Amino acid sequence: MNQLTNFPYQHVLVLGLAKSGTAAAKLLVRSGKRVRVNDLKATSEDSIVKDLQTKDIEVIVGEHPLTVLDGIDILVKNPGIPYYNIVVQEAQKRGIPIITEVELAGQLVSSSLIGITGSNGKTTTTTLIFEMLKHSDQQVKIAGNIGEVATEVAESLQKEETMVIELSSFQLLGVQKFKPKVSVILNLFEAHLDYHETFENYKNAKANIFMNQTESEYLIYNADDPKVVEMIQFARATKVPFSTELKQEAGAWCDQEFVYFKNEKIIALNEIALVGKHNIENVMAAISAALLKGATKKGISQVLTTFTGVKHRLQFVENINGRLFYNDSKATNILATSKALKSFDQSTILLAGGLDRGNDFDELLPYLKNVKAMVVFGETALKLRDIAYKSGIEKVELVDNVKHAAQKAYQLSNKNDVILLSPACASWDQYRTFEERGDMFINAVHTLK
Length: 449
What we know:
Rossmann fold; cell shape
């Protein structure tokens, strides 16, 4: 088992349990550290609390007393806990460093790490890289939101294994020495401003993925995204661009027929199973990372000709009487929904709505030309209805949830229509997660059949 041999802090507060907090606490104890855990929602009767106490971990639950910081050298924060949390703010006042669990994972296995970030496409790209390496007979593990907790994977990672991890801005905001061997930045779009407050803060958090990289590491980036190009200009890593618009001598690119890496033809575009231009960007990023870690063209081709997408990300669900249902519940912002809409040329019925973060949705207008009807729900239903009318869409229906949205969309549809759940909003006004929202849609579609 790998341990934290160069972690100079002795007394650690883990703020927030969940999976990542629990894993971090156990790793720290196994590495010889003194650990205190604080969680607001847990109770003393929870099995995980009792388990941690058997490992000589001090656990304080049900409140956030500021005394939890007494004697603490560093705070390991659950990524979802905001920086206005009372304990976090007090830690900042006391000058206590604040990190997230991925910093611990990075200190265990940085030389074997591929990290992927961006506003959209992270899950698809992370999965593609993992599958490409696996189909090239390499030993590889996946971590983060779509796999096991990063520290659990890193702790057991062998020297010959590679760890592929999806990284959010929340996680990257709390790193110090984190330095992947290969970093990937897919795109940048204003997102999570309720957490980061400004786009500059959000961008700076994303930039932490390459902050510590040097010329011996690689930075794969989207050369078609001006915000990304501006952000990485001072990066010291060896830069590997990808582009759907211009040939890239140092990276991946495509013409009307093929995807290339540098001057080598990799795969024909019409052989790629994923739909949408945005997925070509994800494919090129994945090809670049996989090749840099020794993947084979055969392994890459096997994946790209069969992989049709991850669940909840432009996932094809069913063909019912000629209507094509797609689940894109992971589209929690306007950019993601814009890209989903660009993926289809045929008549589309869009299902959208969710948590209101203050967006006006005008940025969706250029992408609604093929949308013949909209079914809207959640806190943003009226805003989206207004955008639909503004774009000239006459058929707009308000419903209670995505189950009713699927039913109503089918009633409005004709043969060869695409029925697309792509909410452009987070799910938290009605659902615990976007997965729960997507599963409700999938079940509703199967019921229609």
